[in-house]
């Protein structure tokens, strides 16, 4: 008896799932992959940037209001002497020679009416220009003395705003706030919209009709009016922003999910699940919602920039984030007011928002192409 072997030919490669194929196509999209890298960088900058920034986003430098962006340290050499004169203006002393050398300032002071008070050095310490001020009073003549202090080196890579706060630090914290509002409000909108739309589309009939008429009524309410009512009753806070934006943006998601559900409800696997006695809730959870994930993910990447723009619009109107926190919308609003004499205050926040929105839109386009069933 001989063993017989059957040649089945070359082994066929394993078939890829929809998600594996989509990820493969997404990796080939250079614009989408570059957008993912940019979004990761911006997210890390928003999360860790404020902790690593050289200045606090709320720190005010009265001597450096609307200073221009520079790679050199402030104060510049020609600003030290005026800053010293301004700091000692209320000390009731006469200023003599002021010498600046090697990061140190030496100021001769005198008084005609009384002895020098050693506490006048505190006027320099209170200034954001000087530190470690010490006064030496002439033992032979207590009405004369010399103050020595260190000149601080402050770097404002993107300049300062109208209150003297570092614009670079404020852009970093605004990235955190804008991305947080965009992500959380989008999560709220998707959660409500997917569940609501999937339920309406699967149940159908009068229930679907009533649920979608409620959506139509919500569409008729002015968004700004809705936000103003929330502000009047609950005040201004970040949670309010999540609720206000998420409570409106879920309407589009509900309609999209309902349309997808109506087409999926007639598919064979749903009818098979019904024939096996699977409950409607289980079918929606296990079959309907997972099969709408592609559309949901694409819409999410398009909804986040829309939410960020809505938050910026509300902040521009004064209904959004409040001081000392800030967002990209707040910074753009402030920059628009000072664009004539300080155009950098508008340029840097606007450029940051433009990069963020472009990256999100390119990623959304890449996901749409990768998950398009016509390209399988």
From TrEMBL:
Domain of life: Bacteria
Compartment list: Cell inner membrane; Cell membrane
Location of the ABC transmembrane type-1 domain: 175-364
This protein's record includes keyword Cell inner membrane: yes
UniProt name for this protein: Oligopeptide transport system permease protein OppC
UniProt keyword terms in alphabetical order: Cell inner membrane, Cell membrane, Membrane, Peptide transport, Protein transport, Transmembrane, Transmembrane helix, Transport
Similarity comment: family membership: Belongs to the binding-protein-dependent transport system permease family. OppBC subfamily.
PANTHER family with a match to the protein in the record: OLIGOPEPTIDE TRANSPORT SYSTEM PERMEASE PROTEIN APPC, OLIGOPEPTIDE TRANSPORT SYSTEM PERMEASE PROTEIN OPPC
Membrane spanning residue stretches: 31-53, 177-203, 223-248, 288-308, 344-364
Family annotation (PROSITE patterns): ABC_TM1
Pfam families found in the cross-reference section: BPD_transp_1, OppC_N
Source organism (scientific name): Ruegeria spongiae
Membrane topology: Multi-pass membrane protein
InterPro entries: BP-dependent_transpt_permease, MetI-like, MetI-like_sf, OppC_N
């Amino acid at each position: 008896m001989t063993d017989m072997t059957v040649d089945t030919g070359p082994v066929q490669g394993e078939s890829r799932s929809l998600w594996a194929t989509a990820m493969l196509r997404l990796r080939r999209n250079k614009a989408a992959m570059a957008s993912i890298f940019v979004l990761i960088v911006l997210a890390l900058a928003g999360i860790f940037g404020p902790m690593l920034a050289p200045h606090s986003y709320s720190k005010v430098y009265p001597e450096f209001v609307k200073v221009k962006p520079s790679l050199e340290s402030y104060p510049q050499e020609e600003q030290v002497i005026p800053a010293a004169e301004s700091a000692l203006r209320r000390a009731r002393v006469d200023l003599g020679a002021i010498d600046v050398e090697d990061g140190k300032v030496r100021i001769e002071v005198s008084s005609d009416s009384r002895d020098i008070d050693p506490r006048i050095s505190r006027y320099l310490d209170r200034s954001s220009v000087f530190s470690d001020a010490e006064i030496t009073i002439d033992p032979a003549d207590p009405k004369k003395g010399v103050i020595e202090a260190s000149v601080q080196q402050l770097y404002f890579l993107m300049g300062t705003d109208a209150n003297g706060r570092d614009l670079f630090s404020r852009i970093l914290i605004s990235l955190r706030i804008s991305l947080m509002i965009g992500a959380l409000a989008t999560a709220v909108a998707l959660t409500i919209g997917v569940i609501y739309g999937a339920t309406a589309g699967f149940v159908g009939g009068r229930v679907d009709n009533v649920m979608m008429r409620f959506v139509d009524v919500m569409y008729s309410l002015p968004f700004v009016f809705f936000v103003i009512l929330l502000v009047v009753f609950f005040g201004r806070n970040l949670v309010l922003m999540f609720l206000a934006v998420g409570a409106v943006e879920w309407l589009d998601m509900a309609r999209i999910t309902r349309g997808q559900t109506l087409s999926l409800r007639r598919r064979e696997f749903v009818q098979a699940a019904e024939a096996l006695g699977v409950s409607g809730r289980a079918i929606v959870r296990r079959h309907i919602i997972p099969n709408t994930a592609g559309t949901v993910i694409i819409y999410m990447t398009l909804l986040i920039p829309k939410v960020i723009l809505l938050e910026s619009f509300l902040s521009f109107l004064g209904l959004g984030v409040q001081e000392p926190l800030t967002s990209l919308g707040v910074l753009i609003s402030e920059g628009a007011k000072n664009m004539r004499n300080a155009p950098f205050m508008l340029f840097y926040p606007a450029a940051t928002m433009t990069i963020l929105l472009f990256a999100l839109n390119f990623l959304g386009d890449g996901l749409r192409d990768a998950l398009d069933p016509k390209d399988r």
